[in-house]
Amino acid sequence: MTKPEATEDRNQTGRNPMQTLRSISDEQRSRLSEAWVGFATTVRREIHRVLRIWPQTLLPPVITTCLYFIIFGPVLGDRIGQMQGYTYLQYVTPGLIMMAVLTNSYQNVVSSFFGAKFQHHIEEVLVSPMSSQSILLGYAVGGVFRGLVIGAVVGLVALLFADLPVVHPVLTIAVAVLTSVAFSFGGFINAMVARNFDDISIVPTFVLTPLTMLGGVFYSVTLLAEPWQTLSYANPILYMVNAFRYGILGRSDMPIAVAFGVLTLFIVGFYMAAMWMLRRGIGIRS
Amino acid sequence: MSISTSPALRLRGLHKTYANGVQALKGIDLEVNRGEFFGLLGPNGAGKSTIIGIVTSLINRSGGSIEVFGINTDEDLEGAKRLIGVVPQEININQFEQPLRIVAQQAGYYGIPWREARERAGECLRWMGLWDKRTAMSRTLSGGMKRRLMIARALVHGPRLLILDEPTAGVDIEIRRATWSLLEEINDAGTTIILTTHYLEEAEALCKKIAIIDNGRIVKDTDTRSLLRQLVTETFVLDPMQPLERAPTLPGFATRLREDGSIEVDIEKGVGLNELFHALDDAHIQISSMRNKANRLEELFLRLVDESKGRAASAPEPNEVTP
Ligand SMILES: Nc1ncnc2c1ncn2[C@@H]1O[C@H](COP(=O)(O)OP(=O)(O)OP(=O)(O)O)[C@@H](O)[C@H]1O
Ligand SMILES: [Mg+2]
């Protein structure tokens, strides 16, 4: 801090608290370490938020998914019969977990970021030297955290109802992580362009839910007649669900490499779009 | 230019046209020296918050350049931002978060590691008298406390330039005075302060320099003392012992009768008050009390803004940008 002569004596007595608040520009920290701390602070804040409001963020999706297990297991499962050699509950469980992961990752980032816009405390971040990258990745990690925690809890509960072999554990985890990253970025973009609370429910209601329902969670696309089967291949969620099912049951309707290709495409595409919007200040700077 | 010689803030030709076509800034040139306590005054909608928004990068500018301690924001925006702390006009805290976390997180955004961030946050909250509220939900703080929380948040990284957008709006007199001495303390420590306010006595009490902005233009940019010196006349209100029925004629003074029977007297600069009292004696008028009519700065302010309105109405705008 610069010190005009007049206040020099005062500084020595330490009566002025401003003196003890060293300016960060006087400290010897590299820009890189500052960027890391900014990112880590955002991650800490986002995870804290998920845990603080857990009755809103963690509980409902777990309850909903468990209801699916009960309905497709003991209640309906036996009547539906087998699907591709698995019990119906076994068959739908990977899709249900995936559905929970992707909707919650998306939802978390949308509501957190839009909430910050709505209450204007996004300005705290915008006036700081934090880079767009730290902001985006920090929010995304929050979304991934919530998606994966819910995915894990739901998966554990599923084990009570169904026998899940988890044939390819590493692949299973990789697909879950990549999917939640992609949807966290997606949620971020949604929150940036959203102007009101309606705007943050449009995509989940009109895009995510239909695509998930038609994304091979409840059935194998091979059962569909044309043109529905071919049309389904345009649904990215289909690839994610099938890749995840492959990880758990060892069976997929489509090539796994394609699924990873689709995931990579979405992650890179959403990331670049979100970064571009952040730099331009779309929806956050007038 | 080195950090030790360049001004704390230098704005050149700042323009802003909002998406709806409103031309909020029409070429602002402003320089705020290091260590200065600077007042930005102007009527509602003049463009004060727009300037602050642009400097803190919350608003995209349409033209012009910004230098913070010699750092051009086009060249090193992050570097410039590290030097600034801002207290906005509107409350913008997370109402569901605790003050200690809010302030510590802010430190984190500036790259201060979590442990130190919490220490600094505690220090700032103690300073603002909010330590007891550190774990309360921010929503439950009073309006004045929220303002002080925003000041704590702006200080936590030790800014060299502190910008406050109407920090004492809607705050009671006691807290306003307390805020004043707090700001003086911060300024004493070498921090440059830019403050917007509608309270002219606030600007008069705190600011060494004042810029008056109206309708997107600076209409006056000078030090407070010389601004006050521009006042040619000063108006006093005199309460006579007995209410008067008509304005007395006092040689050398313009007088007017007020409804309550008191009189207003204009006194030109350089004329001693003794002469007024002589004239009153000669007219056999007994005075029981006397006061200044209005805040002097207020009058000057109104006059300058009026003048600028007159100019704007009669002349085409020289610095117009085409939308
Ligand atoms: N986001 C915005 N979109 C469009 N116009 C805006 C926006 N923000 C401000 N304006 C307009 O820009 C002009 C300047 O506004 P600004 O908020 O800078 O004024 P101000 O001097 O801070 O006023 P006040 O004393 O009332 O806070 C006004 O005409 C205002 O209506
Ligand atoms: Mg304003």
List keywords for this structure.
heterodimer; A: about 290 residues; mainly alpha; two-stranded antiparallel sheet; elongated; B: about 325 residues; alpha/beta; Rossmann fold; Alpha-Beta Plaits; 2 domains; six-stranded mixed β-sheet; four-stranded antiparallel β-sheet; binds adenosine-5'-triphosphate; binds magnesium ion
Helical amount among residues of chain A, as a percent range?
over 70%
The SS-based structural class of chain B is alpha/beta
Bound molecules: adenosine-5'-triphosphate, magnesium ion
Low-pLDDT runs of chain B? 315-323
Radius of gyration of chain A: 23 Å
- Order the strands across the largest sheet of chain B as they lie in space: 6-7-8-3-9-10
Q: Which strand order does the major sheet of chain A show?
A: 1-2
* pLDDT < 50 runs, ≥5 residues of chain A: 1-14
Assembly annotation: heterodimer
Q: Strand tally of chain A, please?
A: 2
Number of domains of chain A: 1
H/E element sequence of chain A: HHHHHHEEHHHHHHHH
Count of domain modules of chain B = 2
Mean pLDDT of chain A: 87
Instruction: Name the pair of protein chains with the most residues at their interface, and give those residue counts.
Output: A-B, 48 and 54 residues
How would you describe this protein?
The complex is a heterodimer of chains A (286) and B (323). Chain A has helices at residues 8-13, 17-20, 31-52, 54-57, 59-75, 77-80, 88-118, 122-127, 132-161, 169-193, 199-213, 228-232, 236-249, 256-280; strands spanning 82-83, 86-87. Chain A has 286 residues and is mainly α. Chain A has one domain (32-280). Chain A has a two-stranded antiparallel sheet. In chain A, strand 1 (82-83) and strand 2 form a beta hairpin. Mean pLDDT of chain A is 87; it is low at 1-14. Chain B is an alpha/beta fold. Chain B folds into two domains: 9-227, P-loop containing nucleotide triphosphate hydrolases (Rossmann fold); 233-296, Alpha-Beta Plaits (2-Layer Sandwich), CATH 3.30.70. Helix content of chain B is 34%, strand content 26%. Chain B has helices spanning 48-55, 77-81, 99-109, 114-127, 143-155, 173-188, 200-206, 224-229, 273-282, 296-314, and strands spanning 9-17, 23-32, 37-41, 63-68, 71-72, 84-87, 161-165, 192-197, 209-214, 217-223, 233-240, 254-257, 263-268, 287-292. Chain B has a six-stranded mixed β-sheet, sandwiched between helices. In chain B, strands 2-1-4-5 form a four-stranded antiparallel β-sheet. Chain B has a four-stranded antiparallel β-sheet with strand order 12-13-11-14, with helices on one face. In chain B, strand 12 (254-257) and strand 13 (263-268) form a beta hairpin. The longest helix of chain B has 19 residues, at 296-314. Chain B is globular, with a radius of gyration of 24 Å. The two termini of chain B are 34 Å apart. Chains A and B meet through helix 2, helix 3 and helix 8 of A and helix 2, helix 3, helix 4 and helix 6 of B. Bound molecules: adenosine-5'-triphosphate (ATP) and magnesium ion. Magnesium ion binds next to helix 1 of chain B.
